[in-house]
């Protein structure tokens, strides 16, 4: 991977996200509603985040993921089987990743006038056999989650590893348009409300960061909580 030095950093401190990807990402979102790029995330950062998530998984420090929100939130292993931990800037690696997403948020707002208000993200650990059935990340008309992101952390993903994310055509939900191998450095994003996607069963522990750029969907002075 090429190391891109930040304007105010030394040459030994590469940017967390390849800045060239910002242009391709914006163009792809406009043209087709989704983007996938390889070698987008700095590999050293991927390694640090992967170690952190692996340590959490080994020490049972992850929460089982569910579906729904609020009182409707419940576990459904027949729908999704990952375990998660919300990023909270508690490590240098998390801070670097979240700072990179803040820069991307600025680029998206500047280029597409989306009015993105905040970004939320969590680690996602899929043990062998786990999957996530086809779904949308935001209900139509709710528009709290506007753009979804997935950063992949697994080094040297095997060809028989499974665990690919399938992206489907927004107007033909059964038509596959992309198959994303969950290998370190790969970064995907897509429109949360219109792009169906799923995670195929994985044969090996699968590590990623799922995130969402959100609008302020507050009502009555209460900020819409993370779903």
UniProtKB/TrEMBL annotation:
<dbReference type="GO" id="GO:0071456">
    <property type="term" value="P:cellular response to hypoxia"/>
</dbReference>
<keyword id="KW-0560">Oxidoreductase</keyword>
<protein>
    <submittedName>
        <fullName>2OG-Fe(II) oxygenase</fullName>
    </submittedName>
</protein>
<dbReference type="GO" id="GO:0031543">
    <property type="term" value="F:peptidyl-proline dioxygenase activity"/>
</dbReference>
<feature type="domain" description="Fe2OG dioxygenase">
    <location>
        <begin position="112"/>
        <end position="215"/>
    </location>
</feature>
<keyword id="KW-0408">Iron</keyword>
<dbReference type="GO" id="GO:0031418">
    <property type="term" value="F:L-ascorbic acid binding"/>
</dbReference>
<keyword id="KW-0223">Dioxygenase</keyword>
<dbReference type="GO" id="GO:0008198">
    <property type="term" value="F:ferrous iron binding"/>
</dbReference>
<dbReference type="InterPro" id="IPR005123">
    <property type="entry name" value="Oxoglu/Fe-dep_dioxygenase_dom"/>
</dbReference>
<dbReference type="InterPro" id="IPR044862">
    <property type="entry name" value="Pro_4_hyd_alph_FE2OG_OXY"/>
</dbReference>
<keyword id="KW-0479">Metal-binding</keyword>
<dbReference type="Pfam" id="PF13640">
    <property type="entry name" value="2OG-FeII_Oxy_3"/>
</dbReference>
<keyword id="KW-0847">Vitamin C</keyword>
<dbReference type="InterPro" id="IPR006620">
    <property type="entry name" value="Pro_4_hyd_alph"/>
</dbReference>
<dbReference type="InterPro" id="IPR051559">
    <property type="entry name" value="HIF_prolyl_hydroxylases"/>
</dbReference>
């Amino acid at each position: 991977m090429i190391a891109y030095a930040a304007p105010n950093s030394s040459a030994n401190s590469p940017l967390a996200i390849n800045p060239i990807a910002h242009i391709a990402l914006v163009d792809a979102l406009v043209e087709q509603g989704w983007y996938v790029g390889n070698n987008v995330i700095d590999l050293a950062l991927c390694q640090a985040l992967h170690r952190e998530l692996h340590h959490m998984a080994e020490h049972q420090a992850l929460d089982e993921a569910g579906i729904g929100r609020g009182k409707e939130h419940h576990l459904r292993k027949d729908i999704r089987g990952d375990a998660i931990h919300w990023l909270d800037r508690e490590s240098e690696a998390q801070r670097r990743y979240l700072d990179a997403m803040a820069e991307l948020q600025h680029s998206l707002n500047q280029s597409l006038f989306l009015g993105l208000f905040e970004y939320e993200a969590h680690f996602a650990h899929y043990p062998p056999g786990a999957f996530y059935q086809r779904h949308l990340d935001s209900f139509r008309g709710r528009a709290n989650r506007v753009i979804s992101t997935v950063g992949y952390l697994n080094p040297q993903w095997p060809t028989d590893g499974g665990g690919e994310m399938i992206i489907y055509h927004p107007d033909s939900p059964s038509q596959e348009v992309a198959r994303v191998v969950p290998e370190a450095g790969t970064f995907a994003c897509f429109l949360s409300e219109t792009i169906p996607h799923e995670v195929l069963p994985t044969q090996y522990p699968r590590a990623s960061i799922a995130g969402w750029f959100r609008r302020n969907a507050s009502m009555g002075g209460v900020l819409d909580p993370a779903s």
